[in-house]
Known about the structure:
The strands form four sheets. The chain has a five-stranded antiparallel beta sheet. Strands 6-10-7 form a three-stranded antiparallel beta sheet, covered by helices on one side. A two-stranded antiparallel sheet has the order 8-9. It has helices at residues 5-26, 29-35, 37-41, 49-58, 63-71, 120-134, 140-152, 159-166, 172-189, 193-203, 209-218, 247-256, 266-275, 293-305, 315-323, 336-386, 393-410, 414-439, 448-470, 497-519, 521-531, 533-538, 543-566, 577-590, 595-615, 620-637, and strands spanning 75-78, 84-90, 93-98, 104-109, 113-115, 221-226, 235-239, 281-282, 285-286, 326-331, 486-488, 494-496. Helix content is 62%, strand content 8%.
Amino acid sequence: MPRALLPALALLLCLITAPxxxxxxxxxxxxxxxxxxxEVAKPGRQTxxxxxxxxxxxxxxxxxxxxxxxxxxxxxxxxxxxxFYYAKKDGDGFALTDVATGESAGTAPSGELDxxxxxxxxxxxxxxxxVQFQLSDPEISNRIAALDxxxxxxxxxxxxxxxxxxxxxxxxxVLARKKRLDGMLTASFGATPEARIAAIEALSSELSVxxxxxxxxxxxxxxxVAETLPEGANIARELIPGEDLTEAEAYARLxxxxxARPVQSREQxxxxxxxxxxxxxVVGVPVGQLGTEAGRERAYAxxxxxxxxxxxxxxxxxxxxxxxxxxxxxxxxxxxxxTAAAEDALKSVRTRVGMWQxxxxxxxxLSLASIYFLAAIGLAITFGVxxxxxxxxxxxxxxxxxxxxxxxxxxxxxxxxxxxxxxxAFMITFAAGVAMERLVIRWLYHRPLETLLATFGISxxxxxxxxxxxxxxxxxxxxxxxxxxxxxxxxxxGIANIRIAIFVLALVFLCxxxxxxxKTRIGLEVRAVxxxxxxxxxxGINPDKINMLTFGLGSGIAGIAGIAIGLxxxxxxxxxxxxxxxxxxxxxxxxxxxxxxxxAGAALIGILQKGIExxxxxxxxxxxxxxxxFIILFIQFRPKGIVALKGRAAGD
Length: 652
């Protein structure tokens, strides 16, 4: 190539690339802001769309930060040159930052800057545009925030950005949520009926509240009334006056649709008659005759015939109007295939939700039953073997809970403190139970009224002692970190980890007590004393010693129950009183002195209480009252409980 051509080619290349460079610069953030400067300075909800579209389509990495600052009203325009800056107060003026580069752009006095204040409608448009950037933001919190924003205000223009972000999403949880949100958006705003129906059918396997809300939104209907059902309308159902709505409501709909004349009330008739009194009469009807219903009707009919008032609507007129019109509900969605798919999907979702709600109810009932079992099993042993009505049983539960609290003050490791507190609570309450039996109970056998009064007095004394030592303020008994949270099965069913632990503890104690009673010598002696104390004594068993150990065992189990209960309930001096009534009900309903009976009683009361609370969740006191009434009725038909036991406790 001749050297003389090189300068010419270089000049030609500059002439070609210069316009392209200038064009590239014009598509940047700064150039777009200057091109739409009036719209940036005074944005409007209806006209800001072109500006937002240009900014999003520019691909400039500074656009997301500008949109956020614009929505937060941190963008200012300098009057001298019309340029836009970020500005923050700096002394008497403002420190400026370049919107494109983020670098400092000097300062300006406040008089030279105008703050851009987009209204609420514009800010919502900006927020929608920001979502497109946030969906692919490196920070997972920003992506989740974008999904929350879409869920709050879904629209058709969010489908494509959401689908584009699904391809690059790496987090499994966020990816699953994006796919579900894509399905919900497609169900509501899909491009074709086929796409919407497919998305709706896919949603039938979901359980979440937001999915149900989408399906209900598709099935939104409006009320209508006409002489015949409108052709081409997507009718949800036809309403029958007197069945689906009252006749008064139906006629009111006719009046509001200008299809019937309003019914005149007595007050309106009276006012019309009063306003048309002339010379002591109303159209020839003397005022004296207006005191009767017939007189008022005759006067009003005369006014209507003269055209002064509208004719009165009779019962026959109302019946005729109702019979000549149809009342219906019409889907806002025009396509019947889409609403049919939504109805089937919602029915499937509700069926599955009902099944999971039943499981959740069962888990709650099982959890409550395990708590009542732990609280009552010690009482069942003492009451069943010894026939002692121990009103201080709840205070042994309280002693166990306070033991756990004290151990946690000494051992800060919650797991280790729990391991230490469980056997320590058993030993302390076992010793307290033995002391109480030796000092008080042993002198009151076969005197139930005196035993009840004595243990009730001990209960009050132990409560006051706890108040003197620990005060009246509730004390925390903190569970280990591995018991925090809950086992969430899905959006409907779940159970707290601490309740699972209490259930496991109750199961362990069930197995342990069954082993002691059925596989050990002490258990054999306890059962012998329970069934026939005289015969047991003749066989060399010391009933007095068995009574002492049995009472101590029941008290020790109550102490362990106190730790379990204290992990989720407040530890106070009165906490035992909250469980003494339920414990006695559990023992009486299940059958005194029988482990299986106590288990059955705890299950029955747990299910019953949860069932009543489910039917009347706003009134816990009423639920407890109904439960007590049911128990009273139950023991009228089965006074010995579910699992009747023969022996001293049963009155044999």
